[in-house]
Amino acid sequence: MAPHTEQLTRPAVSLRGLTRSFEGRTVLDGIDLDLPAGQFTALLGHSGSGKSTLLRAIAGLDHKVAGSGELSAPQRVSVVFQDSRLLPWRRVLDNVLLGTNGKDAADRGRAALAEVGLKGRERAWPSELSGGEAQRAALARSLVREPELLLADEPFGALDALTRIRMHGLLRRLWQHHRPSVLLVTHDVDEAIVLADRVLVLDNGRIGLDLTIDRPHPRSHRDPLLGEYRERLLAALGVTEDLA
Amino acid sequence: MTTTTTTTTSTAGAAPAAAQDAPRARRARRALTPGRRLPAARLTGPVLLLALWAAASAAGQLDPGAIPAPWTVLRTAGHLWTDGTLPTDVATSLRRAAYGFSLGLVGGVLLALASGLSRTGEALIDGTVNLNRAIPTLGLIPLFILWLGIGETFKIAIIAIVVYIPIYLNTHAALSGIDSRFVELAEVQGLSRWAFIRQIVVPGALPGFFVGLRLGVTGSWLGLVVLEQINATSGLGYMMFQAQNYGQTDVILVGLLIYGVFGLISDSVVRLVERRVLSWRRTLSS
Protein backbone atom coordinates (compact mmCIF):
# COMPACT_ATOMS: atom_id res chain seq x y z
CA MET A 1 0.00 0.00 0.00
CA ALA A 2 3.03 2.27 0.35
CA PRO A 3 3.28 3.40 -3.29
CA HIS A 4 -0.41 4.15 -3.21
CA THR A 5 -0.01 6.55 -0.27
CA GLU A 6 2.87 8.25 -2.02
CA GLN A 7 0.70 8.72 -5.13
CA LEU A 8 -1.96 10.48 -3.15
CA THR A 9 0.31 13.46 -2.51
CA ARG A 10 0.25 14.61 -6.15
CA PRO A 11 -3.14 15.78 -7.48
CA ALA A 12 -4.29 14.13 -10.71
CA VAL A 13 -6.72 16.89 -11.52
CA SER A 14 -6.30 20.47 -10.47
CA LEU A 15 -8.78 23.27 -11.19
CA ARG A 16 -8.23 26.93 -10.35
CA GLY A 17 -10.97 29.47 -10.90
CA LEU A 18 -12.68 27.33 -13.52
CA THR A 19 -15.54 29.27 -15.08
CA ARG A 20 -17.88 28.15 -17.85
CA SER A 21 -20.96 29.86 -19.19
CA PHE A 22 -23.59 29.14 -21.82
CA GLU A 23 -25.22 32.10 -23.55
CA GLY A 24 -24.43 34.43 -20.69
CA ARG A 25 -25.62 32.05 -17.97
CA THR A 26 -22.77 31.13 -15.66
CA VAL A 27 -22.79 27.37 -15.09
CA LEU A 28 -19.45 26.97 -13.35
CA ASP A 29 -18.46 29.93 -11.22
CA GLY A 30 -14.77 29.88 -10.35
CA ILE A 31 -14.26 26.33 -9.15
CA ASP A 32 -11.08 25.46 -7.22
CA LEU A 33 -10.64 21.74 -6.85
CA ASP A 34 -7.89 19.13 -6.48
CA LEU A 35 -8.52 15.46 -7.10
CA PRO A 36 -5.67 13.39 -5.61
CA ALA A 37 -4.33 10.59 -7.79
CA GLY A 38 -6.14 7.33 -7.18
CA GLN A 39 -9.07 8.84 -5.31
CA PHE A 40 -12.65 7.77 -5.94
CA THR A 41 -14.73 10.94 -5.96
CA ALA A 42 -18.42 11.38 -6.65
CA LEU A 43 -19.96 14.62 -7.86
CA LEU A 44 -23.56 15.26 -6.89
CA GLY A 45 -25.91 17.99 -7.98
CA HIS A 46 -29.38 18.75 -9.27
CA SER A 47 -29.99 18.30 -12.94
CA GLY A 48 -28.72 21.44 -14.62
CA SER A 49 -26.30 22.19 -11.79
CA GLY A 50 -23.33 21.92 -14.12
CA LYS A 51 -22.08 18.44 -13.15
CA SER A 52 -21.76 17.35 -16.74
CA THR A 53 -20.26 20.69 -17.74
CA LEU A 54 -17.52 20.19 -15.16
CA LEU A 55 -16.88 16.63 -16.32
CA ARG A 56 -16.78 17.65 -19.96
CA ALA A 57 -14.37 20.49 -19.14
CA ILE A 58 -12.00 18.03 -17.44
CA ALA A 59 -12.39 15.62 -20.36
CA GLY A 60 -11.53 18.41 -22.78
CA LEU A 61 -14.81 18.04 -24.63
CA ASP A 62 -16.04 21.63 -24.35
CA HIS A 63 -14.56 23.19 -27.48
CA LYS A 64 -17.29 25.72 -28.10
CA VAL A 65 -17.99 26.75 -24.51
CA ALA A 66 -16.99 30.17 -23.22
CA GLY A 67 -14.92 30.08 -20.07
CA SER A 68 -11.72 30.79 -18.21
CA GLY A 69 -9.57 29.35 -15.45
CA GLU A 70 -6.75 26.86 -15.12
CA LEU A 71 -7.16 23.15 -15.54
CA SER A 72 -4.62 20.35 -15.42
CA ALA A 73 -5.54 16.74 -16.05
CA PRO A 74 -3.55 13.58 -16.82
CA GLN A 75 -2.64 12.42 -20.31
CA ARG A 76 -4.64 9.22 -20.25
CA VAL A 77 -8.26 10.06 -19.54
CA SER A 78 -11.17 7.72 -20.21
CA VAL A 79 -14.83 8.67 -20.23
CA VAL A 80 -17.83 6.43 -19.61
CA PHE A 81 -21.09 7.99 -20.78
CA GLN A 82 -24.64 7.39 -19.65
CA ASP A 83 -25.28 5.50 -22.87
CA SER A 84 -22.76 2.80 -23.70
CA ARG A 85 -21.99 4.49 -26.99
CA LEU A 86 -20.89 1.29 -28.68
CA LEU A 87 -20.57 1.58 -32.44
CA PRO A 88 -23.32 -0.69 -33.83
CA TRP A 89 -21.22 -1.72 -36.81
CA ARG A 90 -18.31 -3.07 -34.77
CA ARG A 91 -18.26 -6.27 -32.79
CA VAL A 92 -17.82 -5.95 -29.03
CA LEU A 93 -14.06 -6.59 -29.03
CA ASP A 94 -13.51 -4.11 -31.85
CA ASN A 95 -15.52 -1.56 -29.91
CA VAL A 96 -13.35 -2.09 -26.87
CA LEU A 97 -10.26 -1.58 -29.03
CA LEU A 98 -11.48 1.69 -30.59
CA GLY A 99 -8.51 4.02 -30.59
CA THR A 100 -6.17 1.40 -29.08
CA ASN A 101 -3.17 0.35 -31.13
CA GLY A 102 -0.26 -1.99 -30.73
CA LYS A 103 0.52 -5.65 -31.19
CA ASP A 104 -0.96 -6.86 -27.93
CA ALA A 105 -4.04 -4.65 -28.20
CA ALA A 106 -6.37 -7.56 -28.97
CA ASP A 107 -5.07 -9.51 -25.99
CA ARG A 108 -5.54 -6.55 -23.70
CA GLY A 109 -9.04 -6.06 -25.09
CA ARG A 110 -9.92 -9.69 -24.36
CA ALA A 111 -8.50 -9.37 -20.86
CA ALA A 112 -10.54 -6.23 -20.24
CA LEU A 113 -13.70 -7.96 -21.45
CA ALA A 114 -13.00 -10.91 -19.20
CA GLU A 115 -12.50 -8.52 -16.31
CA VAL A 116 -15.96 -7.01 -16.75
CA GLY A 117 -17.51 -10.46 -17.11
CA LEU A 118 -17.99 -10.47 -20.87
CA LYS A 119 -15.65 -13.31 -21.71
CA GLY A 120 -17.00 -15.15 -24.73
CA ARG A 121 -18.96 -12.18 -26.05
CA GLU A 122 -16.04 -10.75 -28.05
CA ARG A 123 -17.68 -11.50 -31.40
CA ALA A 124 -21.17 -10.31 -30.45
CA TRP A 125 -22.75 -7.26 -32.06
CA PRO A 126 -23.69 -4.43 -29.67
CA SER A 127 -27.37 -4.88 -30.59
CA GLU A 128 -27.18 -8.36 -29.08
CA LEU A 129 -26.15 -7.07 -25.65
CA SER A 130 -28.45 -6.15 -22.78
CA GLY A 131 -28.22 -2.66 -21.30
CA GLY A 132 -26.00 -3.86 -18.47
CA GLU A 133 -23.74 -5.84 -20.79
CA ALA A 134 -23.37 -2.86 -23.12
CA GLN A 135 -22.32 -0.71 -20.18
CA ARG A 136 -19.84 -3.39 -19.11
CA ALA A 137 -18.36 -3.29 -22.60
CA ALA A 138 -18.11 0.49 -22.32
CA LEU A 139 -16.25 0.05 -19.02
CA ALA A 140 -13.89 -2.41 -20.71
CA ARG A 141 -13.30 0.11 -23.49
CA SER A 142 -12.36 2.75 -20.94
CA LEU A 143 -10.10 0.37 -18.98
CA VAL A 144 -8.13 -1.04 -21.88
CA ARG A 145 -6.43 2.35 -22.20
CA GLU A 146 -5.19 2.09 -18.61
CA PRO A 147 -6.45 5.55 -17.73
CA GLU A 148 -4.95 7.68 -14.99
CA LEU A 149 -8.31 9.39 -14.71
CA LEU A 150 -11.70 7.79 -15.27
CA LEU A 151 -14.59 10.17 -15.80
CA ALA A 152 -18.04 8.65 -15.56
CA ASP A 153 -21.11 10.70 -16.48
CA GLU A 154 -24.08 9.00 -14.78
CA PRO A 155 -22.88 5.66 -16.15
CA PHE A 156 -25.62 3.65 -14.46
CA GLY A 157 -28.45 6.12 -14.92
CA ALA A 158 -30.14 4.13 -17.65
CA LEU A 159 -29.89 0.74 -15.93
CA ASP A 160 -32.49 -1.03 -13.82
CA ALA A 161 -31.99 -1.12 -10.05
CA LEU A 162 -30.67 -4.69 -9.82
CA THR A 163 -28.22 -4.28 -12.65
CA ARG A 164 -27.10 -1.03 -11.10
CA ILE A 165 -26.19 -2.70 -7.81
CA ARG A 166 -24.11 -5.28 -9.64
CA MET A 167 -22.41 -2.56 -11.66
CA HIS A 168 -21.58 -0.68 -8.45
CA GLY A 169 -19.67 -3.71 -7.20
CA LEU A 170 -17.93 -4.11 -10.54
CA LEU A 171 -16.85 -0.47 -10.76
CA ARG A 172 -15.49 -0.54 -7.22
CA ARG A 173 -13.54 -3.77 -7.91
CA LEU A 174 -12.12 -2.38 -11.13
CA TRP A 175 -11.05 0.75 -9.30
CA GLN A 176 -9.36 -1.26 -6.57
CA HIS A 177 -7.50 -3.27 -9.17
CA HIS A 178 -6.39 -0.44 -11.50
CA ARG A 179 -6.43 2.54 -9.12
CA PRO A 180 -7.22 5.35 -11.52
CA SER A 181 -8.57 8.58 -10.13
CA VAL A 182 -12.32 8.40 -10.58
CA LEU A 183 -14.78 11.24 -10.91
CA LEU A 184 -18.29 9.81 -10.92
CA VAL A 185 -21.03 12.24 -11.82
CA THR A 186 -24.39 11.15 -10.46
CA HIS A 187 -27.67 12.49 -9.15
CA ASP A 188 -28.13 9.45 -6.94
CA VAL A 189 -27.08 10.21 -3.34
CA ASP A 190 -27.04 6.54 -2.34
CA GLU A 191 -24.88 5.61 -5.29
CA ALA A 192 -22.38 8.30 -4.30
CA ILE A 193 -22.30 7.16 -0.66
CA VAL A 194 -21.90 3.48 -1.45
CA LEU A 195 -19.12 3.97 -3.99
CA ALA A 196 -17.07 7.06 -3.28
CA ASP A 197 -14.50 8.02 -0.70
CA ARG A 198 -15.22 11.68 -1.23
CA VAL A 199 -18.45 13.32 -2.30
CA LEU A 200 -18.73 16.80 -3.76
CA VAL A 201 -21.99 18.68 -4.10
CA LEU A 202 -22.19 21.20 -6.91
CA ASP A 203 -24.49 24.08 -6.12
CA ASN A 204 -24.93 27.27 -8.14
CA GLY A 205 -21.72 26.68 -10.04
CA ARG A 206 -19.59 26.16 -6.93
CA ILE A 207 -18.58 23.25 -4.75
CA GLY A 208 -21.21 23.56 -2.00
CA LEU A 209 -20.06 20.63 0.11
CA ASP A 210 -16.88 18.55 0.13
CA LEU A 211 -17.42 15.45 2.24
CA THR A 212 -14.94 12.66 2.92
CA ILE A 213 -16.68 9.35 3.57
CA ASP A 214 -14.43 7.36 5.84
CA ARG A 215 -16.21 4.02 6.01
CA PRO A 216 -14.88 0.58 4.99
CA HIS A 217 -15.99 -1.20 1.79
CA PRO A 218 -18.15 -2.96 0.81
CA ARG A 219 -20.68 -0.59 2.32
CA SER A 220 -24.21 -1.35 3.29
CA HIS A 221 -27.17 1.00 3.11
CA ARG A 222 -28.00 -0.12 6.65
CA ASP A 223 -24.79 1.39 8.08
CA PRO A 224 -26.16 4.10 10.44
CA LEU A 225 -23.14 6.32 9.90
CA LEU A 226 -23.84 6.34 6.16
CA GLY A 227 -27.33 7.53 7.06
CA GLU A 228 -25.80 10.60 8.63
CA TYR A 229 -23.73 11.30 5.52
CA ARG A 230 -26.88 10.84 3.49
CA GLU A 231 -28.76 13.44 5.50
CA ARG A 232 -25.94 15.95 5.20
CA LEU A 233 -25.75 15.46 1.45
CA LEU A 234 -29.50 15.73 1.02
CA ALA A 235 -29.49 18.91 3.08
CA ALA A 236 -26.74 20.33 0.88
CA LEU A 237 -28.90 19.47 -2.12
CA GLY A 238 -31.82 21.29 -0.52
CA VAL A 239 -33.89 18.16 0.11
CA THR A 240 -35.23 17.55 3.61
CA GLU A 241 -36.15 14.04 4.67
CA ASP A 242 -39.46 14.90 6.32
CA LEU A 243 -40.85 15.82 2.90
CA ALA A 244 -40.44 12.27 1.72
CA MET B 1 -63.20 12.42 -3.40
CA THR B 2 -65.47 11.50 -6.27
CA THR B 3 -62.52 10.18 -8.20
CA THR B 4 -61.45 7.98 -5.35
CA THR B 5 -64.88 6.46 -5.04
CA THR B 6 -65.11 5.74 -8.74
CA THR B 7 -61.72 4.11 -8.76
CA THR B 8 -62.59 1.88 -5.87
CA THR B 9 -65.85 0.79 -7.45
CA SER B 10 -64.31 -0.01 -10.80
CA THR B 11 -61.49 -1.98 -9.20
CA ALA B 12 -63.98 -3.93 -7.16
CA GLY B 13 -66.02 -4.63 -10.27
CA ALA B 14 -62.98 -5.71 -12.26
CA ALA B 15 -61.67 -8.09 -9.63
CA PRO B 16 -64.14 -10.98 -10.16
CA ALA B 17 -63.73 -10.72 -13.92
CA ALA B 18 -59.96 -10.97 -13.55
CA ALA B 19 -60.35 -13.97 -11.28
CA GLN B 20 -62.49 -15.70 -13.91
CA ASP B 21 -59.92 -15.00 -16.57
CA ALA B 22 -57.00 -16.25 -14.55
CA PRO B 23 -57.24 -20.02 -15.11
CA ARG B 24 -57.77 -19.63 -18.84
CA ALA B 25 -54.70 -20.09 -21.00
CA ARG B 26 -53.40 -16.72 -22.03
CA ARG B 27 -53.32 -16.22 -25.77
CA ALA B 28 -50.04 -15.06 -27.27
CA ARG B 29 -49.89 -11.45 -28.31
CA ARG B 30 -50.21 -10.61 -31.93
CA ALA B 31 -46.70 -10.29 -33.41
CA LEU B 32 -46.19 -7.04 -35.26
CA THR B 33 -43.30 -8.20 -37.39
CA PRO B 34 -44.39 -9.49 -40.81
CA GLY B 35 -43.53 -13.06 -39.80
CA ARG B 36 -41.39 -15.63 -41.52
CA ARG B 37 -40.34 -15.10 -45.10
CA LEU B 38 -42.06 -17.18 -47.75
CA PRO B 39 -39.64 -19.24 -49.82
CA ALA B 40 -38.60 -17.36 -52.99
CA ALA B 41 -40.99 -14.63 -51.91
CA ARG B 42 -39.78 -12.10 -54.43
CA LEU B 43 -40.52 -14.39 -57.36
CA THR B 44 -44.08 -15.27 -56.36
CA GLY B 45 -45.70 -12.16 -57.86
CA PRO B 46 -43.91 -12.26 -61.23
CA VAL B 47 -44.54 -15.99 -61.65
CA LEU B 48 -48.24 -15.51 -60.94
CA LEU B 49 -48.40 -12.73 -63.51
CA LEU B 50 -46.68 -14.92 -66.08
CA ALA B 51 -49.15 -17.74 -65.40
CA LEU B 52 -52.09 -15.38 -65.91
CA TRP B 53 -50.61 -14.14 -69.17
CA ALA B 54 -50.08 -17.69 -70.45
CA ALA B 55 -53.57 -18.77 -69.41
CA ALA B 56 -55.21 -15.77 -71.10
CA SER B 57 -53.22 -16.37 -74.30
CA ALA B 58 -54.07 -20.07 -74.40
CA ALA B 59 -57.74 -19.27 -73.90
CA GLY B 60 -57.59 -16.86 -76.83
CA GLN B 61 -58.57 -13.91 -74.66
CA LEU B 62 -55.63 -11.76 -75.84
CA ASP B 63 -55.18 -10.25 -79.30
CA PRO B 64 -51.91 -11.86 -80.52
CA GLY B 65 -51.11 -8.64 -82.42
CA ALA B 66 -51.23 -6.56 -79.24
CA ILE B 67 -49.96 -9.03 -76.67
CA PRO B 68 -48.43 -12.17 -78.15
CA ALA B 69 -48.36 -15.36 -76.09
CA PRO B 70 -45.38 -16.00 -73.79
CA TRP B 71 -44.20 -18.90 -75.96
CA THR B 72 -44.30 -16.65 -79.06
CA VAL B 73 -42.10 -14.16 -77.25
CA LEU B 74 -39.71 -16.93 -76.20
CA ARG B 75 -39.57 -18.31 -79.75
CA THR B 76 -38.83 -14.82 -81.11
CA ALA B 77 -36.12 -14.39 -78.49
CA GLY B 78 -34.62 -17.71 -79.62
CA HIS B 79 -34.64 -16.62 -83.27
CA LEU B 80 -33.11 -13.24 -82.48
CA TRP B 81 -30.46 -14.92 -80.34
CA THR B 82 -29.44 -17.52 -82.96
CA ASP B 83 -29.24 -15.04 -85.82
CA GLY B 84 -26.80 -13.00 -83.74
CA THR B 85 -28.58 -9.65 -83.46
CA LEU B 86 -29.83 -10.10 -79.90
CA PRO B 87 -26.44 -10.96 -78.32
CA THR B 88 -24.91 -7.86 -79.96
CA ASP B 89 -27.75 -5.63 -78.81
CA VAL B 90 -27.66 -7.00 -75.27
CA ALA B 91 -23.88 -6.60 -75.07
CA THR B 92 -24.09 -3.01 -76.31
CA SER B 93 -26.78 -2.10 -73.79
CA LEU B 94 -24.97 -3.79 -70.92
CA ARG B 95 -21.74 -2.02 -71.77
CA ARG B 96 -23.45 1.39 -71.81
CA ALA B 97 -25.21 0.75 -68.53
CA ALA B 98 -22.04 -0.61 -66.90
CA TYR B 99 -19.84 2.29 -68.00
CA GLY B 100 -22.39 4.93 -67.10
CA PHE B 101 -23.16 3.31 -63.78
CA SER B 102 -19.49 2.89 -62.81
CA LEU B 103 -18.71 6.50 -63.65
CA GLY B 104 -21.75 7.73 -61.75
CA LEU B 105 -20.93 5.55 -58.76
CA VAL B 106 -17.32 6.70 -58.49
CA GLY B 107 -18.27 10.33 -59.13
CA GLY B 108 -21.14 10.30 -56.63
CA VAL B 109 -19.06 8.70 -53.89
CA LEU B 110 -16.03 10.95 -54.42
CA LEU B 111 -18.14 14.11 -54.49
CA ALA B 112 -20.07 13.01 -51.41
CA LEU B 113 -16.83 12.32 -49.52
CA ALA B 114 -15.30 15.64 -50.55
CA SER B 115 -18.44 17.52 -49.64
CA GLY B 116 -19.30 15.56 -46.50
CA LEU B 117 -15.85 15.65 -44.93
CA SER B 118 -14.71 19.22 -45.55
CA ARG B 119 -16.44 22.57 -45.22
CA THR B 120 -14.68 23.91 -48.32
CA GLY B 121 -15.80 20.88 -50.29
CA GLU B 122 -19.35 21.34 -49.09
CA ALA B 123 -19.36 25.01 -50.09
CA LEU B 124 -18.09 24.17 -53.57
CA ILE B 125 -19.96 20.97 -54.30
CA ASP B 126 -23.26 20.72 -52.47
CA GLY B 127 -25.00 23.70 -54.01
CA THR B 128 -23.72 22.79 -57.47
CA VAL B 129 -25.02 19.24 -57.28
CA ASN B 130 -28.40 20.45 -56.07
CA LEU B 131 -28.51 22.86 -59.01
CA ASN B 132 -27.71 19.94 -61.31
CA ARG B 133 -30.46 17.93 -59.64
CA ALA B 134 -32.99 20.67 -60.34
CA ILE B 135 -32.40 20.31 -64.10
CA PRO B 136 -34.08 17.16 -65.46
CA THR B 137 -31.13 15.13 -66.70
CA LEU B 138 -32.94 13.85 -69.78
CA GLY B 139 -33.42 17.50 -70.73
CA LEU B 140 -29.64 17.71 -71.14
CA ILE B 141 -29.70 15.25 -74.04
CA PRO B 142 -29.82 17.82 -76.88
CA LEU B 143 -26.95 19.80 -75.37
CA PHE B 144 -24.86 16.70 -74.78
CA ILE B 145 -25.40 15.53 -78.35
CA LEU B 146 -24.08 18.86 -79.61
CA TRP B 147 -21.10 18.70 -77.24
CA LEU B 148 -20.16 15.03 -77.44
CA GLY B 149 -21.73 13.86 -80.70
CA ILE B 150 -24.36 11.17 -81.07
CA GLY B 151 -21.91 8.34 -80.27
CA GLU B 152 -21.41 6.34 -77.10
CA THR B 153 -19.82 9.10 -75.00
CA PHE B 154 -22.92 11.21 -74.58
CA LYS B 155 -25.05 8.20 -73.65
CA ILE B 156 -22.58 7.13 -70.99
CA ALA B 157 -22.38 10.71 -69.72
CA ILE B 158 -26.15 11.01 -69.38
CA ILE B 159 -26.42 7.65 -67.55
CA ALA B 160 -23.58 8.68 -65.24
CA ILE B 161 -25.43 11.87 -64.32
CA VAL B 162 -28.66 9.99 -63.66
CA VAL B 163 -26.73 7.61 -61.39
CA TYR B 164 -24.46 9.98 -59.47
CA ILE B 165 -27.20 12.28 -58.16
CA PRO B 166 -29.05 9.84 -55.87
CA ILE B 167 -25.78 8.29 -54.76
CA TYR B 168 -24.34 11.71 -53.92
CA LEU B 169 -27.45 12.95 -52.13
CA ASN B 170 -27.92 9.93 -49.90
CA THR B 171 -24.24 9.42 -49.13
CA HIS B 172 -23.74 13.10 -48.36
CA ALA B 173 -26.78 13.20 -46.08
CA ALA B 174 -25.51 10.12 -44.25
CA LEU B 175 -21.98 11.49 -43.91
CA SER B 176 -23.08 14.84 -42.54
CA GLY B 177 -25.75 13.28 -40.32
CA ILE B 178 -23.25 11.33 -38.23
CA ASP B 179 -24.34 11.12 -34.59
CA SER B 180 -22.56 13.80 -32.56
CA ARG B 181 -22.29 11.35 -29.67
CA PHE B 182 -19.96 9.25 -31.80
CA VAL B 183 -17.90 12.33 -32.64
CA GLU B 184 -17.49 12.90 -28.91
CA LEU B 185 -16.55 9.26 -28.41
CA ALA B 186 -13.88 9.50 -31.10
CA GLU B 187 -12.40 12.55 -29.34
CA VAL B 188 -12.38 10.76 -26.00
CA GLN B 189 -10.73 7.68 -27.49
CA GLY B 190 -8.07 9.89 -29.05
CA LEU B 191 -8.78 8.90 -32.66
CA SER B 192 -6.87 10.71 -35.38
CA ARG B 193 -8.92 12.47 -38.04
CA TRP B 194 -8.19 9.73 -40.53
CA ALA B 195 -9.08 6.96 -38.07
CA PHE B 196 -12.27 8.82 -37.20
CA ILE B 197 -13.30 8.97 -40.86
CA ARG B 198 -12.35 5.36 -41.54
CA GLN B 199 -13.78 3.77 -38.40
CA ILE B 200 -16.80 5.93 -37.62
CA VAL B 201 -17.87 8.27 -40.40
CA VAL B 202 -17.67 5.91 -43.36
CA PRO B 203 -19.21 2.81 -41.72
CA GLY B 204 -21.92 5.04 -40.26
CA ALA B 205 -22.72 6.41 -43.71
CA LEU B 206 -22.94 3.01 -45.42
CA PRO B 207 -26.70 2.51 -44.90
CA GLY B 208 -27.36 5.86 -46.61
CA PHE B 209 -24.94 4.98 -49.39
CA PHE B 210 -26.83 1.77 -50.13
CA VAL B 211 -30.12 3.63 -50.42
CA GLY B 212 -28.45 5.85 -53.01
CA LEU B 213 -26.90 2.85 -54.73
CA ARG B 214 -30.23 1.14 -55.26
CA LEU B 215 -31.77 4.32 -56.64
CA GLY B 216 -28.70 4.72 -58.87
CA VAL B 217 -29.00 1.20 -60.29
CA THR B 218 -32.65 1.78 -61.16
CA GLY B 219 -31.70 5.15 -62.64
CA SER B 220 -29.07 3.63 -64.90
CA TRP B 221 -31.66 1.35 -66.58
CA LEU B 222 -34.14 4.19 -66.87
CA GLY B 223 -31.58 6.41 -68.57
CA LEU B 224 -30.56 3.57 -70.84
CA VAL B 225 -34.10 2.88 -72.06
CA VAL B 226 -34.77 6.52 -72.88
CA LEU B 227 -31.43 7.02 -74.63
CA GLU B 228 -31.63 3.88 -76.71
CA GLN B 229 -35.16 4.47 -77.88
CA ILE B 230 -34.60 7.95 -79.21
CA ASN B 231 -30.93 8.37 -79.97
CA ALA B 232 -29.37 5.04 -80.84
CA THR B 233 -28.37 2.91 -83.81
CA SER B 234 -27.78 -0.23 -81.76
CA GLY B 235 -28.77 -1.77 -78.47
CA LEU B 236 -31.95 -3.20 -77.01
CA GLY B 237 -33.86 0.08 -77.19
CA TYR B 238 -32.96 0.46 -80.86
CA MET B 239 -34.19 -3.09 -81.50
CA MET B 240 -37.52 -2.22 -79.86
CA PHE B 241 -37.77 1.07 -81.76
CA GLN B 242 -37.30 -0.78 -85.07
CA ALA B 243 -39.87 -3.39 -84.03
CA GLN B 244 -42.36 -0.61 -83.38
CA ASN B 245 -41.98 0.56 -86.98
CA TYR B 246 -42.68 -2.95 -88.28
CA GLY B 247 -45.42 -3.72 -85.76
CA GLN B 248 -43.48 -6.61 -84.16
CA THR B 249 -45.03 -6.67 -80.71
CA ASP B 250 -43.19 -9.88 -79.81
CA VAL B 251 -39.80 -8.23 -80.36
CA ILE B 252 -40.81 -5.28 -78.21
CA LEU B 253 -41.82 -7.69 -75.44
CA VAL B 254 -38.49 -9.49 -75.74
CA GLY B 255 -36.74 -6.16 -75.17
CA LEU B 256 -38.92 -5.27 -72.20
CA LEU B 257 -38.43 -8.71 -70.71
CA ILE B 258 -34.66 -8.41 -70.94
CA TYR B 259 -34.72 -4.93 -69.39
CA GLY B 260 -36.86 -6.31 -66.59
CA VAL B 261 -34.54 -9.25 -65.96
CA PHE B 262 -31.53 -6.93 -65.91
CA GLY B 263 -33.24 -4.62 -63.46
CA LEU B 264 -34.26 -7.47 -61.17
CA ILE B 265 -30.81 -9.07 -61.20
CA SER B 266 -28.93 -5.83 -60.55
CA ASP B 267 -31.26 -4.88 -57.71
CA SER B 268 -30.88 -8.34 -56.16
CA VAL B 269 -27.10 -8.09 -56.36
CA VAL B 270 -27.14 -4.73 -54.58
CA ARG B 271 -29.48 -6.11 -51.91
CA LEU B 272 -27.21 -9.10 -51.41
CA VAL B 273 -24.12 -6.95 -51.02
CA GLU B 274 -26.04 -4.64 -48.69
CA ARG B 275 -27.14 -7.52 -46.48
CA ARG B 276 -23.56 -8.79 -46.29
CA VAL B 277 -21.99 -5.42 -45.54
CA LEU B 278 -24.66 -4.27 -43.11
CA SER B 279 -24.98 -7.59 -41.34
CA TRP B 280 -24.86 -5.78 -37.99
CA ARG B 281 -28.30 -4.34 -38.60
CA ARG B 282 -31.21 -6.26 -37.22
CA THR B 283 -34.35 -4.91 -38.80
CA LEU B 284 -37.77 -6.14 -39.84
CA SER B 285 -36.34 -7.54 -43.05
CA SER B 286 -33.90 -9.92 -41.36
Automatic annotation (TrEMBL), chain A:
* Any one GO molecular-function label of the UniProt entry: ATP hydrolysis activity
Q: Which SUPFAM superfamilies match?
A: P-loop containing nucleoside triphosphate hydrolases
Q: Which InterPro entries match?
A: AAA+_ATPase (IPR003593), ABC_transporter-like_ATP-bd (IPR003439), ABC_transporter-like_CS (IPR017871), ABC_transporter_ATP-bind (IPR050166), P-loop_NTPase (IPR027417)
Keywords per UniProt:
ATP-binding, Cell membrane, Membrane, Nucleotide-binding, Translocase, Transport
Task: Quote the SMART domains the UniProt record gives.
Answer: AAA
Residue ranges of domain ABC transporter in the record: 13-229
> What is the protein's name according to its record?
Aliphatic sulfonates import ATP-binding protein SsuB 1
Organism of this sequence? Streptomyces spiralis
UniProtKB/TrEMBL annotation, chain B:
Similarity section: Belongs to the binding-protein-dependent transport system permease family.
Report keywords, A-Z: Cell membrane, Membrane, Transmembrane, Transmembrane helix, Transport
ABC transmembrane type-1 domain residues: 90-270
Q: Where in the cell is the protein located? A: Cell membrane
Q: Name one GO cellular component term.
A: plasma membrane
Which Pfam families does this entry report, sorted A to Z? BPD_transp_1 (PF00528)
Q: Which residues form a coiled coil?
A: none
Q: Which domain of life is it from?
A: Bacteria
Enumerate the Gene Ontology biological process terms.
alkanesulfonate transmembrane transport
Residue segments, region Disordered: 1-26
The UniProt regions of compositional bias labelled Low complexity, in chain numbering, are 1-22
Topology of this chain in the membrane:
Multi-pass membrane protein
Q: What's the main place this protein lives? A: membrane
Q: Could you tell me which InterPro entries the record lists for this protein?
A: MetI-like (IPR000515), MetI-like_sf (IPR035906)
Q: What is this protein called?
A: ABC transporter permease
> Where does the chain cross the membrane?
97-118, 130-150, 156-175, 196-217, 251-273
Q: In the record, which residues are listed under signal peptide?
A: none
